[in-house]
Specification:
alpha+beta; single chain; 5-stranded antiparallel sheet; 6 helices; 3-stranded mixed sheet
Length: 245
């Protein structure tokens, strides 16, 4: 009996059970969400950006100003009236002109890339033609005793100064050499376009002189005076311009 008891007590314990593959897979599955946080964070940012863009398109967000934008503030002083001039001219016609100015400046012994400039400028402006009625005297107007006929002698039409329209004038291209660009850095008025403006005004004025603008102004003045005198009761009306200009 004692021998049997000793044998029962000396029986080795059973080995521990090995973990089943199902439990190991559960542990591994529990570790994946914690290890992939760096994948979820960019995805959340993309969703947030898309939501902001969509809200902006639908006007669901208040308008935000550009922090780097510039603001324009007009600090111009009051405009002063310097003089008033009474006009006695009848503006009878106006001509609109356009010219393409190609102004090229070259330096001797230097290439254009170093010294020189070329500007292609489209100049648009107008020239008015008028008849000066301020110098008319008693000899300029004569009428019959019955006040049925009248004769008016007028001076020839003249051209006004060309006026360049800044809204319709613009520079197409402007090429400048290296030395000219460096000079603009130390200039008070870089990119000055006054010279090309003067050239455009000069060409517009020359074109107006060669046009039929003065003749059109005299024709319109004659028509205006004839209608005016007819409304006053005159039947026979003669409007004369001197033969020599």
């Amino acid at each position: 009996m004692a021998l049997l008891r000793s044998r029962r007590t000396t029986t080795p314990p059973a080995p521990p059970e090995a973990p089943s593959p199902q439990r190991g897979s559960e542990r591994g599955a529990g570790r994946r969400p914690g290890a992939s946080w760096w994948i979820k964070l960019p995805a959340a940012l993309v969703v947030l950006i898309l939501a902001v863009v969509l809200a902006g398109r639908l006007d669901l967000l208040p308008k935000l100003q550009n922090p780097f934008g510039t603001e324009t503030e007009d600090r111009t002083g009051p405009t002063l009236l310097q003089s008033i001039k009474d006009m006695s001219r009848y503006q009878a016609a106006t001509g609109n002109f356009q010219v393409v100015v190609d102004l090229d400046k070259d330096a001797k012994f230097l290439p254009d890339a170093v010294r020189g400039s070329r500007t292609l400028f489209v100049g648009a402006g107008e020239v008015g033609a008028y008849v000066d009625l301020g110098g008319l005297g008693k000899r300029s107007v004569s009428m019959s005793d019955d006040r049925r006929s009248a004769t008016v002698r007028l001076p020839h039409a003249e051209l006004g100064k060309p006026a360049l329209d800044s809204d319709r004038s613009y520079a197409v291209t402007e090429e400048r050499g290296l030395l000219d660009r460096l000079g603009d850095v130390f200039s008070d008025n870089p990119g000055d376009e006054r010279e090309v403006h003067k050239v455009a005004v000069q060409h517009i004025g020359e074109a107006a002189k060669k046009s039929d603008l003065p003749a059109r102004a005299e024709k319109n003045t004659r028509s205006m005076l004839e209608n005016l005198l007819k409304s006053l009761g005159f039947d026979r009306i003669t409007i004369d311009f001197p033969k020599s200009r």
